[in-house]
Records
---
Amino acid sequence: MSNLDMIHAAARRLDGHVRRTPLLSSSFLDEIAGRRVLVKPECLQHTGSFKFRGGWSALSALDPDVRARGVIAFSSGNHAQGIALAAQRHDTTAVIIMPSDAPKMKIDNTRALGAEVVLYDRATEDRDVIGDRLSAERNLTLIKPYDEPLVIAGQGTTGLEIAEQAAVEGVTSGDVLVPCGGGGLTSGISLALEGHAPEMQVRPVEPEDFDDVARSLKSGKIERNDRQSGSLCDAIITPACGDLTFPIIKRNCGTGIVVTEEEALRAVALAFARLKIVVEPGGAVALAAALFHGDQINGDAVIAVASGGNIDADVFRMALERYAE
């Protein structure tokens, strides 16, 4: 199980390799939200998402002989790119199993970073079967996208930065909104804040129809999504929360917030217009919650993590055309 000590150890391994992303603000966004909004733009991280933190954390902790044999991962895109770059910089190989309907840019970028991409059909093929076969054939080490202690610890370094930066801004309490798929980022940030900013409350944010974490927090057990595709918020679509991440989220986090796809797209447009950053729909759900669901948020200030910016050009164009400022 990941803990605060593991997060601090990951931070030491990441030092000099990961970008320390800032906290951004805009009076225009504050006016929409009715409170102060601070945005943590992990879309500015290497590979365009927070996933590089977990990828580097996991690879850097492997025994060198094990790492040299190569790694394998499952991903619809952001974890794929994070692992691919971390593997490249550790001078080893990476095999990434990706759904064939993943955004083309994410598939192309993963290949460009030197990884071997194996595509599969979500509807007819089992990625676990493919992964087990390739791992056995090539003696590769599996790095899971969220249900892995070293990955959770790497994502938790985002929370260490939030605690330090928020204190500088005079914010020591309130909600921290986090886009949530499998729960690696949400649980990691919650562990970091539990240790360094206990008055801050992490809140998972999900798109409608894929709100398994919000439902799981209500029922007290892991709920599953009926579908695994069909949303513009593909970056945070998973079958269910992780067996490791959910107990942490259940202990540390407040109730989940669910936003519509259109709210996420509007947040994409506002992030570009007011913060000058590019965020993908899945990475924009926390900002959407901050802006459009203020009645569910506590405190005079709210922190929203913009978790990724790997958006296809046509989706970005659609967001800007629909919600031009």
Note: The radius of gyration is 18 Å.
---
Amino acid sequence: MTKRVLFYARNATNTIHNACFDTQRHFAKIFIKEMGWKLILTCRDEDIGEVVFTAQPGIHKLLYEVDHGSVDVVLCHTLDRLCSSFTDAVRLLHDLNAKGIELWAADPGMRIKTKELVEYYCTDPGRPLGGGRHFEAKPDDLYDVEHLVRLSYGYRYTGAYNADRRYIFGFKVLDPEAADVVLRIFQMYADGMSPAKIAAVLNTQGVPSPHGRMWREATIRGSSTRGTGILNNDSYLGRSWVPGRDYHDYALALQIVSDELWRRVKLRQEFSARRAA
């Protein structure tokens, strides 16, 4: 009997270390075809940081299908794209085994058992399962940036060839023109200009906004407590969260705003908040 497959993918905010959704899906389909299985459902989540495992919509749907026994195999690209922690992985594998459902990783193409979980999570959490690759080649005709997770203003996606001459998609790089605008906004605010005035200046100069419309004060000011708005986006420090770790990575090549300029902006925000109070 042909095995019914549920494919799960979690998009990557840090595409330096993890494959994007389109890459995961592409190679999962190849693996399913090679195994003679049938794909019946794809569940997907976005990488939004540390959240309760079962609170993710894609995982919630996956567990529903597992509970109803509608699939024979749960497939992921690499194990880190399914579970960020050892505890979650053990519990999920236990639930799957109880229902007679197999767990597979398309890269490196193997069924996952408890010993693989221990090896993967307890020796080197940053290493792909079985010594495989986090990245796989992706043909140009499958690339569609609209299907990738949206990047902050100032960045864009690109690809590159690795040492094996495989073309890898999903790398996050600076968008030079937009990055210059981000830096200008921080400098103008640190020098005393209000977000409303900054927006007016950018609109007068015809600078494109993040969504192609007019610049608005709220787009720049945002909320410092919620981390929204241009002035509160710490990704401009080159910061990125890596699933399965309790700290953030910093990539100097992705830093737009210097640490000193960031501190100046934060000090002015604190002063403005105290004055308003």
Note: The longest strand covers residues 38-45.
---
Amino acid sequence: MAERIQLGTSQPLLIREAQVQATLTMPRALEALEAAFRDWAHGRATNQPRQRVHTPQGTLHLMGAAWHSRGYLGYKAYFSFPTGVRFHVALASAHTGELLALIEADWLGRIRTGAASGLATKYLARPDAQTVAILGTGAQAATQLEAVCTVRPIQRAFVFSRTPDKRAAFAQRMQEQLGIPVHATECVDDAVAEADIICTITTAREPILLGALLKPGMHLNAAGANTLARRELDTFAVGRCERIAVDDPQQARLEAAELLVPIELRKLSWERITPLAAIVGGLAPARQSPEEITLFKSLGIALEDVAAAATVYEAVAL
């Protein structure tokens, strides 16, 4: 049972990591994000882009959203320091402002980031996509692969990271978890050669996925970079994508270096970039042909956190 926090007359829940992991499955996260994005497209949700407060030692990251139609308002705050990163989500009633829960949000952040890529894959990847490549094996990588496998009939996966031991261990672990062959590869070229879907989830500062490697019909989820100092895709790769979606265009203007660089070079315009919510909400087209190369640039937004937090809260409290 969740602990209670004593705040005056109200007693919000304190929901620990173990409870989040026990309740927030990938299907639940996908369902919540799809509902929240659909509501956002029709004016029933609001998102506020991330803000950062820097100190010489570390950074506070703060982002908020409201899911009006479900009655929730909340924010995620996290502190990134050399000693590590600590996440929490505060969830409140959108009707009264009463604090409902304070939620430890490491796992919540991992699964909602994967679910965002899974949601984009549902609308933008070819329905017959069967092979996925994942670049990166860090803390966020497993949920990227799990989400894609949840929304498409994936038969095999290829993985690359710079460290041979890590990519081999990741491949073995995910093969056991997902029940499909997962192959560790020695280079990016080998990982993506046969892929229908590519997920990038790295800390790379310079592009690792180059446009020359892309083939017609691919779908890309670029989820690793959310600062102007990092890019996973080069300008040629972005330029080859006929359909580009982002989780929040306003936040993309502040953080999406993969898009901002080609826009500065006049290789791309904001008019070609579509909010994922508009696609999910039926206001903009999804994939239009099997040959299109499609891209979802994921930044990680507060509405995803609030939707995931609401799912956890309802599972624990109601």
Note: The mean pLDDT is 95.
